[in-house]
Write a sequence for this structure.
């Protein structure tokens, strides 16, 4: 039996995930989870009325994964907000981001057509992202790219059909999430090109995602030596006095529960975020 108690990073059909809110409690139980956080891209879940709700015996936290631009780290990073109680400013910003997603998708499809002479026919909505486009490319009978090749050769960074999104700055995004959420964490720090610089930004947050499927220890060569053999949880708790978060970053149903927090760390997270008051 898995020791993972809570998966605090996963996506639903509200953005680019496979699981619906209605299906989620049963999927969580099948994976021996007691709690999950829905962290859809640039949106919270409208069907959750509280920051934390108990649905069919599973604690479901309404969260968000917000992409922001960091001049300090010179790259785009993701922030995880937990226990959303949205302000007007957050709602308006997310509305602008979603509208930009539509315009961006249309531009990407135009560039794909210029590159391949094939027009991808797909439904576009405020939740459309590059994974949706990659799936459409994979399913096209006129193109020979599979899902991964779509990113590698067409729509990935620096590819012919890449278009960047309009996103808030780190400072603005962090401020909005702190005003709207009970707890704000840095997502998957070692996915970034400059993890050291990104981790320094986390000093302004409540926590750091220390457990996720693609590695929780600093291994790449060429970075600051003193980080080379230190686990993320030590950096978070001992260096920056931050709390630990963790999750699968699941988009597919089968990936839910593959990473997350044990009960001890989850209880500390609930206490620090003051989300435990919603358990009754």
């Amino acid at each position: 039996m898995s020791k993972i108690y809570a998966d605090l990073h996963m996506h639903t059909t509200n953005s680019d995930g496979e699981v619906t809110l209605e299906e989620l409690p049963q999927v969580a139980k099948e994976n021996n989870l007691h709690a999950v956080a829905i962290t859809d891209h640039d949106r919270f879940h409208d069907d959750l009325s509280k920051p934390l709700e108990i649905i069919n015996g599973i604690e479901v936290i309404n969260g968000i994964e917000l992409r922001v631009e960091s001049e300090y780290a010179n790259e785009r990073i993701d922030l995880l907000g937990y226990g959303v109680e949205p302000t007007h400013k957050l709602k308006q910003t997310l509305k602008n981001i979603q509208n930009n997603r539509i315009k961006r998708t249309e531009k990407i499809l135009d560039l794909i057509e210029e590159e391949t002479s094939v027009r991808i026919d797909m439904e576009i909505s405020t939740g459309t992202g590059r994974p949706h486009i990659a799936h459409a490319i994979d399913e096209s009978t006129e193109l020979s790219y599979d899902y991964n090749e779509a990113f590698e050769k067409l729509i990935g960074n620096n590819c012919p059909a890449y278009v960047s999104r309009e996103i808030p700055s780190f400072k603005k995004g962090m401020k909005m999430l702190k005003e709207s959420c009970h707890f704000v964490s840095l997502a998957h720090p070692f996915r970034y090109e400059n993890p050291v610089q990104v981790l320094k930004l986390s000093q302004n947050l409540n926590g750091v995602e220390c457990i996720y499927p693609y590695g929780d220890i600093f291994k790449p060569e060429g970075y600051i030596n003193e980080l080379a053999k230190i686990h993320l949880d030590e950096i978070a708790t001992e260096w920056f006095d931050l709390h630990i978060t963790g999750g699968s970053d699941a988009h597919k149903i089968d990936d839910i529960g593959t990473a997350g927090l044990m009960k001890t760390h989850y209880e500390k997270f609930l206490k620090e975020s003051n989300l435990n008051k919603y358990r009754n």
Q: What stands out?
A: The chain is about 35% helix and 20% strand. Residues 6-91+170-278 form a domain with the TIM Barrel fold (CATH 3.20.20.140). Residues 88-116 form the longest helix (29 residues).
